[in-house]
Structure formats: C-alpha cells, structure tokens
Design brief:
With 76 residues, the protein is α+β, with helices and mostly antiparallel strands. The chain has one domain. The chain has helices spanning 25-29, 50-65; strands at residues 15-23, 35-43, 68-75. The longest helix is centred in the C-terminal third of the chain and has 16 residues, at 50-65.
C-alpha cells in the first residue's frame, strides 16, 4: 500500500524517486499553466518493477493534489 511519508532530503532508502507534475483540469480549461511538482519516493521492496513504481508515483501525486499528471520524471 502506498502512503505519504515525510523523508528528509539525502536520507538513504532503497527507493525509486520521481518528480511528478500535475495540472488541474479547471486550470487547463481556463488557459492557465498551473502545475504542482511533487517529489514521490516509492519503495523498491514494495514495488520492485520500475513500471509499477512509475504508475504508483503518478497515481499518488494525482490523489494528493488532484488533476492529472502531465509529466513523471525519474530522479537518478
């Protein structure tokens, strides 16, 4: 199960890290470029496949901020 957690920058965890950009539908319809950037960490132990972790990151950011993901960028 994915959940939101506070993690300090630079802490050592075995995770995939993603920057997820989301836009709300009403902002897009109004012609506003309003994006929210979220840093999402997904446990490799829980989601060992990159594709699954990618999908979880997009879904989690969308659930927290609403709207739809416009970009999901892995952080290496």
């Amino acid at each position: 199960m994915a959940e939101v957690a506070e993690v300090a920058e630079g802490e050592a965890y075995d995770v995939y890290a993603f920057d997820v950009f989301t836009s709300r539908h009403d902002d897009v319809q109004a012609g506003r470029v309003a994006q929210v950037r979220s840093r999402v960490l997904v446990s490799r132990a829980e989601f060992p496949r990159f594709a699954d972790a990618y999908e979880v990151a997009a879904n989690l950011a969308t659930a927290v901020h609403g709207g739809m993901p416009t970009a999901v960028l892995p952080r290496w």
